[in-house]
Design goal:
234 residues, 8 strands, 17% strand, globular
């Protein structure tokens, strides 16, 4: 089954999502961009509470939106977030400059933290960069979108390219994740691609992605993912 990654901004949302069946808890500030980062003290507080209530639940956190050339700032934020005790540190990898992206990936691979590169797919995916990342010791790779108002990941990136992304990551023995304004109507397409996990925020909220998470939405989406996993192949 595709595992459900729920993006949350505070302790209340984290506990609600975990109790409703989320498989991963991802810490971010949705009002600060696609990979908006939370303050370190907020991350530490959420991690402490989750470790007590759900000790086996994996926790990731984003570092914020940064360009590939902000290497030192990115390295500082990776250390700051990694030192908060999360299992994974998520870092955005924007397209458009292959050399800068590959150089940044090399720097991230040398960090003493479990970094998950998140490839921004608004203008498609550079599969050569993905191949380069898959050869490095990252625990997983994700594809996501920057502009959440431009449609879903499937509107921004063709399904064959996403299938190639998942295939590259899987063949490398890494976890493959997909995210980007995904909702319940995208579950059949996700099931076709079969990533290891899919990230959700808007679909879990009462309104837009800046609104609060509704536990019932998390539980409903989790059941829908289970139903897709059990659906017969035609």
């Amino acid at each position: 089954m595709i595992r459900l990654l729920a993006s949350v901004r505070d302790v209340g949302e984290a506990l609600a999502a975990a109790a409703a069946g989320a498989d991963f808890i991802d810490l971010k500030e949705p009002r600060a961009g696609a990979l908006g980062g939370l303050p370190a003290e907020t991350i530490r507080k959420i991690v402490a509470v989750l470790r007590q209530a759900h000790p086996a639940l994996p926790i990731s956190a984003t570092i914020g939106d940064h360009g590939a050339h902000e290497v030192e700032r990115i390295a500082d934020r990776v250390a700051e977030v990694g030192d908060c005790g999360v299992d994974y540190v998520k870092v955005g990898i924007a397209g458009g400059d292959r050399l800068a992206a590959v150089s940044l990936l090399g720097r991230l691979a040398a960090a003493p933290y479990a970094v998950v590169p998140v490839f921004i797919a608004d203008d498609g995916l550079d599969l050569a960069v993905v191949e380069a990342a898959a050869r490095l010791p990252f625990p997983g790779l994700m594809a996501d979108t920057q502009n959440k108002l431009a449609g879903s990941l499937f509107d921004c990136c063709p399904a064959p390219v996403l299938a190639a992304f998942v295939g590259i990551v899987r063949r490398a023995g890494r976890l493959a994740g997909l995210s980007g304004a995904l909702r319940q109507q995208h579950l059949p397409a996700l099931a076709e691609l079969a990533p290891d996990f899919a990230g959700f925020r808007s679909a879990l909220c009462a309104g837009g992605r800046a609104a609060a998470i509704v536990p019932e939405n998390v539980a409903r989406l989790r059941l829908a993912l289970e139903a897709e996993a059990c659906a017969p192949v035609v």
